[in-house]
Predict the 3D structure of the following.
Amino acid sequence: MADAVTKLAYQTLQQGKSLVGVAHKEVSTRLMELLAPKGAPRTRPVQPQLLGELQACHQQLLDVDWQEAEQGLYPTSLLFDAPWLDWAARYPLVWLDMPSTWTRRSQRNVQDLPRDLETSAFPDYYLQNFHHQTDGYLSDHSASLYDLQVEILFNGTAEPMRRRVLKPLVQGLRAFSDRPATSLRVLDVATGTGRTLRQIRAALPQAQLVGLDLSPAYLRQANRWLSQLPSELPQLVQGNAEAMPFAEGSMQALTCVFLLHELPAEARQNVINDCFRVLEPGGVLVLADSVQLADSPAFEPVMDNFRRAFHEPYYRDYIGDDIDARLTAAGFSGIRAESHLMTRVWSATKP
Ligand SMILES: C[S@@+](CC[C@H](N)C(=O)[O-])C[C@H]1O[C@@H](n2cnc3c(N)ncnc32)[C@H](O)[C@@H]1O
């Protein structure tokens, strides 16, 4: 009975998030067409049949999310975990930030970054306003709005999609079941504001967690979110995922969520190669990113609209890329992949 009530509460919460996301995008698109018509993206209409398929996949995602919690992979309380009050307080800031986003979009200005920025620490491909985001990934302002913006973009499914890395991660770590759980090191590559680390902490309360990202501001935000947890604070490290400051074979598992589509092809391969280097033999890499043309051809209009509406310079290349081939080229074996709504999750083992 308690389970049925919790499940209903979860489904209702997700429907509420979805409604907020859809309404927000509808209103903001209309406003942009009215106030900044030159900047308004020309997106393609999504046909009713495709909308139906998306809704079915949305429901399947929520069902899997619930089932995996019920199986004990993570506590059901994680399904309700979000900084609700903080997001409510920040929501007006998302609107206040929009006019500058529209201006950048209409002027096709994708290099509008903080003036005092020391750029030499970052690769060229990183120094742009991904998603037309104010300051790119390079300010506290950007980091403070990012999570809420992503939840709105995904109609409240960002966290359920991130959680899909947990099952292959926990299964992959069984290779080290003869070791104490406290000795296992799990690295989240491109951790951003640490939302994936928060999910991993709930599934692996004893493991040593590490998060790496290029953005000092996003790591500061991750520190804020993660220090609210009663458990040990993950180690947060600033660095480039192409050449990580970790010793060869020093991690038993790696996750990497929503990074690959923001990298040029060469950097994508470099990241996968460095993940291979940092993993101990027997360790698992779990990647999550956008679905691609080969696995989800019916969703092509949605992928295309994403690229049209947001500044995502490497997305078109990414959706046609062969990630399995890249994993194989790096040396991985046992490659598996499955899709959950708009997210594809790969897991692979270092032999
Ligand atoms: C779309 S966000 C995803 C963040 C996080 N994983 C999540 O699920 O929200 C991409 C992240 O990748 C980081 N990033 C981009 N290129 C990187 C690189 N070469 N090395 C490390 N981090 C990088 C950005 O700073 C940003 O935090």
In short: The chain has one domain: 1-351.
